[in-house]
Amino acid sequence: MHPSLPAPASNLSHWHRTTRSFPHLNANRFAEVPASTKYLVIGSGITGAATAWELINSGVAGEDVLILEAREAVSGATGQNAGHVRPDAFRGFPRFSAIHGPEQAKLILENEKLHLQSVKDFVETHNIKCDFNYTTTIEVCMTEEYASHLAKVLSQYRKAGGDVSHIKFYQGDEAKAKTKVPAAISAYEWPAASNHPGKLTQWVLSDVISKGGKLWTHCPATKISKHRGTDGARWDIQTPRGIIAAETIIHCTNAYAGYLLPEISGVVTPRRAQAHAYVPPASLSGESALKSTLSLRYGPTNFFSVNQLKDGTVIMGGQAVRSDAERTPEYLEGRVSFDDTTHNPQITKNSIEEFSRLSSSPSNGPARPGEGFSHVWTGIVGETPDAVPFVGPLPGLDGQWICAGYNGHGMARIFQCAPGLVKLITGSSWAATGLPACFQFSKERLDRISRLKAKV
Ligand SMILES: Cc1cc2nc3c(=O)[nH]c(=O)nc-3n(C[C@H](O)[C@H](O)[C@H](O)COP(=O)(O)OP(=O)(O)OC[C@H]3O[C@@H](n4cnc5c(N)ncnc54)[C@H](O)[C@@H]3O)c2cc1C
């Protein structure tokens, strides 16, 4: 599929609809771009915002940092996700092991645990009002087959020396009672959080701007070429409102990275994900509101995430099917796409049915006007063939860096990846980032990916 710039008229998520008065939403919408900057960050999602923030808080002058955003601020996946900050506690171990070996697989999972603490510390230290809810998450096994698969995975992870001390296990009636899901076969619980990703990222952008950083919205970077001259700049970045000369470029464009970097087009690929918001009936309201987030899982990549916000709204991400027969062409329509202007009605139908099962109870009485399904939206996730992000310098492109490709799991990784990348940019070694070695961008990794793709 050809790489693409973000579609101009992307749909508004629940998070967008509840933050329309963000003062920097359309910052510098009609202004010509500055002629030069030392650091150019492309993308205003959580990766771009956190990278700019880390640069400034590592000693770079705010005035030397410029963020370019193709649409309004935080209009990509960060503003369109399901609000979960949910470390993978052990589920991904076999897949990561098969691709990167068991030691890297353990480091990937341990890094996600650290990440949860990093987000919590960041939000608490800066007293950020982003509806942060530090709680637990419960992985609910919805089929016997998946329950038995996951039991094996936990045992495999434990045998490999993985830390499982923070994971609680429930089975049968106990699992049903704990999760309030009548079909639960078994369940695993561990610490996680949910938040309003729009409010969190807007706070970070506001702080960057208050420290002198600049944000240009509705201003896509359309081409990068070598800068000619002796003024210290290395690259010229074209935009519809002028050319910027920059010393350093940081690509925080996630699914769209291949547009400016043909060398990774086809390596970071788009997947459209969909989420829905619901106003709960009595069974999930008041003191019956969910205390933990849930993942209702029918298979390793076949799930609905459930995240009840502090105001009671239930956000359901994921797009599960309950049997292979439901994997119809209509259901698969739009899955590999850059189009976040629309959604898939078949997935909405599945989601509404799942919400109805989750919330059905004799205590509900007749549905009240205003209850139930309230909104649907989509966003574009950046996938990589080896299931982990790209972090680091771009070989052969002196002064260009990347942090992208979180495989739909960025809110559980970026507060480790972005600070790690800034350490590299400011001269530290890879070891100082604390990131698993398999996240590092390199020519060798691209070659390994080509071999992996050839095998599939
Ligand atoms: C429906 C959905 C549900 C999800 N649920 C979860 C979840 O519950 N938990 C979780 O961990 N993750 C989830 N994710 C994934 C998560 O949202 C992403 O991993 C994360 O937001 C990526 O952040 P980012 O800043 O790298 O990318 P983005 O937020 O996509 O930011 C990239 C930005 O770059 C801009 N851009 C692109 N190209 C250019 C260009 N050439 N010039 C200028 N600007 C450009 C885009 O407009 C965009 O704003 C979900 C994603 C979706 C879509």
Model description:
This protein is of the alpha/beta class. The protein has 12 helices and 17 strands. Strands 3, 4, 5, 6, 11, 12, 13, 14 and 15 form a 9-stranded mixed β-sheet that branches. Strands 1, 2, 7, 8, 9, 10, 16 and 17 form an 8-stranded mixed β-sheet that branches. Strand 9 and strand 10 form a beta hairpin. Helix 2 runs parallel beside helix 7, helix 2 crosses helix 10 and helix 3 (93-100) packs across helix 4. The longest helix has 24 residues, at 102-125. Flavin-adenine dinucleotide (FAD) binds at residues 5-6, 42-48, 68-71, 75-78, 80-84, 86, 220-221, 252-254, 256, 259-260, 273-275, 305, 317, 379, 381, 404, 406, 408-412.
CATH architecture of the largest domain: 3-Layer(bba) Sandwich
- Which blocks of ≥5 consecutive residues have pLDDT under 50? none
Question: Rounded to an integer, what's the Rg over CA atoms?
Answer: 22 Å
Mean pLDDT: 96
> So, the CATH homologous superfamily of the largest domain?
FAD/NAD(P)-binding domain
Q: How many DSSP E strands?
A: 17
N→C terminal distance: 18 Å
Query: Largest sheet, if any?
Result: 9 strands, mixed
Q: Write the element-wise H/E pattern from the N-terminal end onward.
A: HEHEEHHEHEHEHEEEEEEEEHHEEEHHH
Morphology: globular
- Domain unit count: 2
